[in-house]
Amino acid sequence: MPESVKRSTPPEVDRVAASRAAVAARRARAAVKASVAAGERSPLDVLRVAFEDAESAEGRLRVTEFLTSIPAIGVTKSARILEDLEISTAKRLGGLGRLQRRRLREFVAAWIAAHGGTGDRLVVLAGPTAVGKGTVASYIRRHHPEVRLSVSATTRSPRPGEVEGESYYFVDDAEFDRLIDSGELLEWATVHNANRYGTPRGPVEAAIAAGDSVLLEIDIQGARAVRRAMPEATLVFLLPPTWDELVRRLVGRGTESPAEQQRRLETAKVELAAVDEFDHEVVNHDVPEAAQKVVDLMRPRSGRR
Ligand SMILES: Nc1ncnc2c1ncn2[C@@H]1O[C@H](COP(=O)(O)OP(=O)(O)OP(=O)(O)O)[C@@H](O)[C@H]1O
Ligand SMILES: Nc1nc2c(ncn2[C@@H]2O[C@H](COP(=O)(O)O)[C@@H](O)[C@H]2O)c(=O)[nH]1
Q: Could you tell me which residue ranges the Guanylate kinase-like domain spans (predicted)?
């Protein structure tokens, strides 16, 4: 042990260690800010990490430091934004309450969409079983040809009327394994403990590169995976008007056995609690109205396209 340390009294050693830790923490926070300012890291990704781990460099970042690292947000604008969001400038990201997190995330997602990020180009529509995701997505396919709908790969068998390459790419387990191993899927999940479903990466990346809007209609696990892979994506949670209406839709669809319906409803209860992880909520009272709300989120607010 070096002489200097041996001679230090315990409080002095503590002070040296604390000051080193403070310098390291300050450097880590500065690195986060610099990566956002340089456009290397999405602000939404920073928020995700901060909300998952309050003690991380991201979680220790003050909201003002965070906002001012976003290009075109200065100190004055940041103060005004925080006043609107009812968040104290002294708060750290990891110390925000549930509603404050939600308001800040919605603000940042809207800011990215309005300032040229991919947020308005890649929109994920997710929600519990039978809420109407497929119905709303089909409506968008029919009425909004400008929106590209991603076609998923699945190991389930085609239902009557489903068309290969339009409804899904129907593949066997070996082919699905190959798609995973070769990195050709942006995300994949086993849905309802039954079949595997995944989003082919190539068409999504090509559409975004071409400036098109892409809609992914996938389950909640898939939405979380897309957020990890592409933090700028806009996540939309489709909600039923009421729980009873969700049950009515599931039972009324008549495609699952009563036992399977029960299992899906148990999962739906858990999934509904994930709504706070999403950037926007749309209540599916009426299909055209819900579809319009989703499509509106895909359009830039400033007429960029
Ligand atoms: N706004 C609405 N009003 C009334 N019924 C609706 C509405 N939207 C969808 N439905 C009906 O609810 C049922 C479930 O819809 P859909 O199959 O699109 O759900 P989903 O979310 O894709 O389900 P899953 O995840 O289980 O595949 C269907 O019978 C559909 O016709
Ligand atoms: N994670 C993913 N989930 C997907 C994908 N494509 C569809 N889905 C979800 O699966 C269920 C069941 O669909 P169904 O057509 O068999 O009724 C539904 O919740 C879809 O949203 C995907 O690529 N990834």
A: 120-299
How many CB atoms within 10 Å of residue 298?
23
Residues contacting 84, CB < 8 A, separation 6+: none
Sign of the dihedral through C-alpha 208, 304, 113, 73:
positive
Residue with tokens 């456009």: 39
Nearest Cα neighbor of 230 from 258, 254, 201, 257 is 201
DSSP letter at 276 equals: G
Rg (CA), the chain: 23
Burial category of 110 from C-beta neighbours within 10 Å (exposed 0-12, middle 13-18, buried 19 and up): middle
Beta carbons within 8 Å of 225's beta carbon, 6+ residues apart: 186, 187, 188, 189
Q: For residue range 146-176, what is the model confidence (pLDDT) as tens digits?
A: 899 999 999 999 988 899 999 999 999 999 9
Using the mean position of ligand 2's atoms as its centre, give its distance from the Cα of residue 99 in Å.
Answer: 29
198-232 confidence digits (pLDDT tens): 999 999 988 887 878 899 999 999 999 998 888 77
Nearest-angstrom CA–CA distance, 188 and 192:
13
Task: State yes or no: pLDDT of 3 exceeds 70.
Answer: no
CA distance 67 to 250: 43
What is the crossing angle of helices 98-114 and 43-52, to 10°?
170
Q: Does residue 41 line the site of ligand 2, with CB under 6 A?
A: no
**Structure tokens that stand for 137 in this block:** 């997505």
